[in-house]
Amino acid sequence: MTKSIVCLQPLTAEQQERIQAAAPGYTFTQGDGKNPDLQMLADAEIVIGWAKGIADTLLRPDSPLRWVQSWSAGIEKLPLERFKEREILLTSGSGVHAEPISAVIFGFMLLFTRNLHTAVRNQMNRYWNSDGSESELFGKTAVIVGTGAIGSETARIAKAFRMKTIGVSRSGKPLANFDQVYTTDHLPEAVSQGDFIINILPITDETKQLFNTAIFSAFKQGSYYINVGRGATTDTEALIHALNRGQLRGAGLDVFETEPLPQNHPLWTMEQVVITPHSAGITDQYANRIVNIFTENINSYLSSGTPSLNLVDYARQY
Questions:
Q1: pTM for the whole structure
Q2: DSSP characters for 163-215?
Q3: Around Cβ 275, how many Cβ atoms within 10 Å?
Q4: Entry's SUPFAM superfamilies (predicted)?
Q5: 98-275 sits in which CATH class?
Q6: Burial zone of 184 (CB within 10 Å; 0-12 exposed, 13-18 middle, 19+ buried)
Q7: Following DSSP, what letter does each residue of 44-108 receive, concatenated?
Q8: Is 221 in contact with 166 (CB distance < 8 Å)?
């Protein structure tokens, strides 16, 4: 039987050719995640992307499936327990978001320090006004919770603004461009120092509603909260309370516990909040970066049987 790779996300002809060239001996098929062909998927050894309604076909006892390359960095919506039971290799799209999401992070920070969010609203009302509270990033402290590819790129850029950078990670391991890195159990101490607290965490059992009332109470008075990780890492009611009582001066939010954010949600009407529709990671370079990850991984998969980049540890859920 011919070995098969099926991609469920649209790729250009050039991108398809790159995958085919990297995987001699395999057939490559461009599938459709919105209307998946189960007969075609039934013979796949490697699948790029995922779709609703395909799990029973791909995870049946006699399936040849051995490896799934996720199209996203987040993997919480995939059937992880079934993957684990079947010993399916899973690699994430971690790393594809570093450039676009770090740009959104600094977009939020610059909006707040220069009051550009209020300037846009004033412009809509033809209202010429400044309250004189404009500031700058120089000398400010960014606490970056999650020091992976996005966090590391954010810290690198922050140094160009001559900011102090504090990281928070499971290991607390020192990293380039971070002045200090705390372990997660020291999160209250870390956030108490931040002018900007930037949440880039994935959703796991450990991170669910990690940002709760106790953590927001530890924030420096008048600081800003930015969440570009996962909405479920934050207790939204606790966030609103921190905003209402002035503990937080503002928040830049790309992700929410419920998406889309309901039209009657109070966050919509809070002038100190800037909302983007879970779009921070969107970029016209996305597919190219996934293909880069996949082609490097297929080389190691063919030589050793295991992809080398972004291999998910099911115990850690990332």
A1: 0.91
A2: -EEEEEESS----TT-SEEEEGGGHHHHHTT-SEEEE-PPP-TTTTT-B-HHH
A3: 15
A4: Formate/glycerate dehydrogenase catalytic domain-like, NAD(P)-binding Rossmann-fold domains
A5: alpha beta
A6: middle
A7: -SEEES--TT-HHHHTSTT----EEE-SSS--TTS-HHHHHHHT-EEE--TTTTHHHHHHHHHHH
A8: no
With contact defined as beta carbons under 8 Å apart, do 257 and 234 qualify? yes
Structure tokens at 246: 């002035």
8 Å CB contact between 214 and 188: yes
Closest by CA to 83, choosing from 73, 95, 75, 71, is 75
User: What DSSP state is assigned to residue 311?
Assistant: B
Residues 154 and 199: beta-carbon distance below 8 Å: no
- Count Cβ neighbours within 10 Å for each residue of 277-291 and write b for 16 or more, e otherwise: ebebbebeebbebbb
Q: Which of 122, 318, 141 is nearest to 233 (CA)?
A: 318
Q: How far apart are the C-alpha atoms of 122 and 107, rounded to whole Å?
A: 19
Tokens of 147: 């020091």
**For residue 162, with 0-12 CB atoms within 10 Å meaning exposed, 13-18 middle and 19 or more buried, which class applies?**
exposed
Q: How far apart are CA 224 and CA 311, in angstroms?
A: 33
Look at residue 28 in the predicted model and tell me its pLDDT.
97
- In tens, the pLDDT along 46-91 reads 999 999 999 999 999 999 999 999 999 999 999 999 999 999 999 9
Q: What is the DSSP letter of 263?
A: T
**Model confidence band, residue 1 (pLDDT cutoffs 50, 70, 90):** low
Spatial separation of the C-alpha atoms in residues 46 and 121, rounded to whole Å? 49
Q: Tell me the one-letter amino acid at 236.
A: T
Strand partners, 5: 28, 46
User: What's the CATH number of domain 3-95+284-304, 3.40.50.150, 3.40.50.720, 3.30.1130.10, 2.60.120.200?
Assistant: 3.40.50.720
8 Å CB contact between 171 and 147: no
